[in-house]
Amino acid sequence: THEVYPDGAECELAGGYGNWVLRNMVYLIEHAEMAGCSNELPDDFKAHTEKMFDYLLSVAMPDGRMPGLNDSGNAAVTDLLRIGHELFPHRGDFEYVASRRKRGRVPPFTSRALPWSGHYVMRTGWGEDDLFMLVDSGPYGSAHQHEDKLHFVLFGYGRQLILDPGNYSYDASRWRQYVLTTPGHNTVLVD
Questions:
Q1: Strands 132-136 and 112-114
Q2: Which residue among 46, 61, 124, 131 is the one 20 to 30 A from 108 at the CA level?
Q3: How confident is the model over 58-71, as a mean pLDDT?
Q4: For residues 40 and 46, is the Cβ–Cβ distance under 8 A?
Q5: How far is CA 108 from CA 80, 91, 126, 185, in A?
Q6: What phi and psi values does residue 170 have, to the nearest 5 degrees?
Q7: Quick check: 49 pLDDT over 70?
Q8: Angle made by CA atoms 34, 30, 76, in degrees to the nearest 5
Q9: Strand ranges for 71-167 from DSSP E
Q10: What is the C-alpha to C-alpha distance for residues 74 and 166, in angstroms, rounded to an integer?
């Protein structure tokens, strides 16, 4: 749980890696329940896990994916939020996004500040054609990070309009070097 910020983001700040950590936390909860030793988990373990699902809910674009940031591409969150609803059945908002607006309840917010990760999300609503923007002004991250402060991604009218450049390939090419830099991102450069 030391890898999870209080706002639910995993400290690498790369969604694919954070989702891997979340899945491992879920496996630990499931195996502890099967073995009858859930009481041996740290007292705050399930609360940290729920917070990670809440982070996914916050950053979910209208198409059910989270934006690719740092060394991560866009990643589907609907299956994870379905698992989140199974673990936390009181979270009808998890079910709403997981079911693509067919069941559950609409999340009670449209915009959200996630100050530990530095992710600020604005949306006009939770429909498939609503507008969504995430601004990244967070810390550098613990690994897999890019120089992308004040970078933003934009989704609207059913598709992603402005996206993160991705991570290219883990090699020494000039393209890999470019996607790590500020000019490789949707941000303002002051000369």
A1: unpaired
A2: 46
A3: 91
A4: no
A5: 20, 11, 10, 31
A6: -75, 80
A7: yes
A8: 155
A9: 75-76, 112-114, 119-123, 132-136, 151-156, 159-162
A10: 9
Token output for 112 = 């959200």
pLDDT in tens, 69-112: 877 778 999 999 999 999 999 999 999 999 999 999 999 999 99
Handedness of CA 97, 157, 131, 10 (dihedral sign): positive
Tokens of 65: 């994916």
Task: Measure the CA–CA gap between 4 and 67, rounded to whole angstroms.
Answer: 18
Q: Please report, to the nearest 10 degrees, the dihedral formed by the alpha carbons of residues 142, 117, 21, 3 taken in order.
A: 60
Residues with Cβ within 8 Å of 163's Cβ and at least 6 positions away in sequence, in order, are 67, 68, 74, 153
Three-class SS state of 135: strand
